[in-house]
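Troubleshooting log. The previous run stalled partway through. Resubmitting the same two chains, unchanged.
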Amino acid sequence: MTVKQLEKIAAEKADLINVRRIVREQAEKLAANTGYRKQVLVCGGTGCTSSRSLEVINQLEKSFSELGINDVLIVKTGCFGLCALGPIMIVYPEGAFYSQMTPEHAKTVAEKHLVKGGSIVKELLYVETVHKDGSVIPFAEIPFYKHQMRIALRNCGVIAAESIEEAIAAGDYAALAKVLTSMTPDEVISEIKASGLRGRGGAGFPTGLKWQFTKEAQGDIKYVCCNADEGDPGAFMDRSVLEGDPHTVLEAMTIAGYTVGAQEGYIYVRAEYPIAVERLNIAISQARKLGLLGKNILDSGFNFDIQVRLGAGAFVCGEETALMASIEGHRGEPRPRPPFSAQCGVFKKPTVLNNVETWASVAPILLKGSAWFSSIGTEKSKGTKVFAVGGKIHNVGLVEVPMGTSLKTIIYDIGGGLPNGKRFKAAQTGGPSGGCIPATHIDVGMDFDNLTAIGSMMGSGGLIIMDEDTCMVDIAKFYLEFTADESCGKCTACRIGTKRLLDILKKITDGKGEPEDLDKVTELAEHMKSSSLCALGQSAPNPILSTMKHFGDEYFKHIYDKKCPAGVCKSLLNYYIDPDKCRGCTLCKRNCPANAISGEVKSAHVIDTKACIKCGQCIAHCKFGAIVKK
Amino acid sequence: MAQILFEGTKEQMHRLMDCINEHRSEKGALMPVLHEAQNIYGYLPAEVQTIIADELGLPLAEVYGVATFYSQFSLTPKGKHRISICLGTACYVKGSDKILEAVEHELRITCGECTPDKKFSIESCRCVGACGLAPVMIIDGEVYGKVTAADVKGILDKYMQD
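Second attempt completed without errors. Output:
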């Protein structure tokens, strides 16, 4: 295909996409040009698919054929970001935001709204989009989206995830056309460098420099790799990009191939992401068919192709040398650096490796210019960052904000605050390698340097919100269990260090902690930081160190008072039945596996704390909230 | 757990050889072949690893080394119904450990094991990305979201019957 043909596809579908990007009056005018009276976008990302969004699509199709609706387009998109409200369905041109859809709801919407002359079914809209006076606001104007700025996620939830034509109409491959027709590799590198783009995978290394080193490296064969091994539990932005806009990754990798002189690329993706893998494979075959991958791309004489490689459930493979070993078909064990991957990467050839979100930021920079990108964000962290906000927060989902946006804005303005009126206690960033941000630092501007300064780290962007019911010692133990389990075992410092740290934490949460344990942790952490082979071991102590720094009193209470203030650590708690609340229904007694509960029908029951195994079955079954842990 | 003898069909063998032939010339073919072999057999018995090693010209030790390194590759068979409980951070802070305990309690096996009648096996996983539905439990690919310990019995009952 030629650049002209590419532009033709983009022009043909431009209005279709624009209806989804602008709202109300103008969109209604545009809709007339598209041949579709309305468009229904249903999320087909992992989150909404898990809550049965595909059944919603099936029902819509069924209702359309029953009602004779043939001028409404159904679009299966990637993630909209507000996963907590899934399945999500948006109707354009109104921008009507239906949430938590069921097939029955879909039937109602088809009958009352999508038929000719129909009107919005307000009862089924997301409550925040209906004003007190009954007027409806388009979904883009609700607080969750209003405070965001979407660059990497620009097409997620906008385009049909499995349509290359829609991707092209939304702007994908325009940057590739620009680069191949009018830019030299050096110009691309200087543009990326000037933009200030830093790696979104966690380390924050300047992307332009990485490309430059690989370009300058000697070698006839070079590779371009994409790190889609998103192992940080709770982070799912890379998955959403791959599911919602896979072509932006293919495009950016092709641009990098042209820039560094590579003709082959690998995408290393978690096998736990079946939808992302499927969409990537579809996207790759579509791009090959149109000549956007393969030989003589866009008539430029440049050849480039991409293969997908599946991970197999090893967290350490997110580390670059381990990832490359895994692509080569070996155990995913890291190796010492230097040599760096720019000189000696996959199959010992010069390799440029970037994370999915980084790749997704490349095309906009080349289209809109480095000056635009570097005007967003803070002094040393440019552009935007996607956070996967989860845990104890209303609006669980994906949030993309300019670097430097305060944690407070993310939690309260975008995230809608914490459920059940609970108090914010801490936010965990950076996953098992990161640390926590206590409530006293809630005004921190989220960028690479600020987070490091307060003892946490950006990481890949997982942001877990915790409330007063979360025990910080238990959370540190949770992360250590993770790293001890995922340590590949190659170097002693990490293999044994993580086990010993975990032993100490278990001892503390079991109520057997001694004051000198904390000194041992500090000393061991220093050794691990200085002598582990890769970032997994070097950063494994971070969750303990940062919780000790900010929540030292909780450690003291566990060690000296043998109490868990948050009521989490089992060994330090006992279960009791509040006699005033107990109605004597016997449900707890019947479900207690240890026969530790006694009492007659209709009189208050009692738990024998010696026999109790603290399994929590009684709490789960009690309908009166009569059972307490303290 | 008692040793379960390996029984492969001719059809499975054909599929395995097709997959090996497809990847044979590729660099780093081992991982894709192991993935496919596990799809075919449900796990990676020693017999299958030996065939792969011979066909790809690799030492068996290397194939075994890779098969045991990655948590998704299993050297033991799984139950008819595979239960997976997410222990990723978002699910954990919402109490997925309680769900796991309830499942273990209900089936009387621990995580990583298979019931003696080979009907159920339990495993834990790390974040399937359905954090909006936390805590989640997956049975045979079907995702159950916002599960509570009290829900567990009802969900499992559906699978008990067949």
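Takeaways: Chain A touches chain B through 57 residues (CB under 8 Å). Residues 473-561 of chain A form a domain with the de novo design (two linked rop proteins) fold (CATH 1.20.1440.230).
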